[in-house]
Design a protein that fits this description.
Length: about 280
């Protein structure tokens, strides 16, 4: 019997995935979780019926949520990742030579465990000695930490279920306060085509707090429309002026990110730029 996973994004737009095999299914305390084997993109993490990451294209997202901020900051030593229980963002953070500690704050331990079992190429860095894992609400965690992190990455799922409050200005304010005086934050800010109002609101909220706010784009084929946005708030360093040392980039051994992508990602199409005027 042929298995089809249908992602319904709007009343008029849905995506069908042909599934070769369902490897794991459970209802956690927070969401419905599944690990499936797709025909086109290999194994995938599915939360509440929406594909979050696949082994074929995950590096596009994980490199781009992590590396622009790490390469903008001159000496990122202490990093926090909120969400991101699959471990892909942690893996990319640990590629940077100056990083000494990464704190993963993931509300749903079941995501971590499932990804460690079924997606080892994505979760492989979670056992690194520099990683500390906190199974708790990221909103509550940042409220207890002030002036502590060089970089904070908000690797949330879509703004439904447990991730809803990770898109509010009050949360970004606590993130701002958890950063050091020259800290940088990045959040994934959804599709610039299908989530225009949300992207505009996120940019505005971050701009209300940070002196430097930049939205940048990347291609992630498995996400709605295949085009994805990230919003960066920086207390001191402008990613447009960052000097990208090629020796460090070469050490990262990336598949998507490079020095030219760093610059080009911040060049916005008019339909995106107009949201921020």
């Amino acid at each position: 019997m042929e298995l089809i996973l249908t992602e319904k994004h709007t009343d008029g737009y849905s995506v069908n995935w042909k599934i070769k095999e369902t490897l794991h299914v459970e209802q956690t305390k927070y969401q419905h979780l599944a690990i499936v084997e797709t025909y086109e993109f290999g194994r995938a993490l599915v939360l509440d019926g929406i594909i979050q990451t696949t082994v074929k294209d995950e590096y596009m997202y994980h490199e781009m949520i992590a590396l622009p901020a790490l390469m903008t900051h001159p000496n990122p030593q202490k990093v926090m990742v909120i969400g991101g229980g699959d471990g892909g963002t942690i893996r990319e953070v640990l590629k940077h030579p100056s990083v000494q500690q990464v704190d993963l704050v993931e509300i749903d331990e079941k995501v971590i465990l499932a990804c460690q079992k079924y997606l080892p190429e994505i979760s492989c860095a979670l056992t690194d000695s520099r990683v500390r894992i906190f199974v708790e609400d990221g909103i509550e965690y940042v409220q207890r930490h002030k002036d502590k992190y060089d970089v904070i990455l908000i690797d949330s799922s879509d703004p439904i279920g447990p991730a809803t409050n990770l898109f509010h200005e009050s949360f970004y304010k606590n993130v701002y306060e958890a950063l050091k005086t020259d800290g940088i934050m990045v959040c994934q800010s959804e599709s610039p085509l299908f989530n225009r109002e949300l992207l505009g609101n996120v940019h505005k909220s971050v701009k209300n707090l940070f002196p430097i706010t930049r939205t940048y784009l990347a291609t992630v084929p498995t996400y709605i429309s295949g085009f994805w946005s990230f919003t960066m708030g920086s207390k001191r360093y402008d990613p447009l002026n960052a000097e990208i040392p090629l020796d460090v980039v070469n050490r990262l051994k990336t598949k998507y990110y490079n020095a030219d992508i760093h610059k080009g990602a911040f060049v916005l199409p008019e339909y995106v730029a107009e949201l921020f005027r």
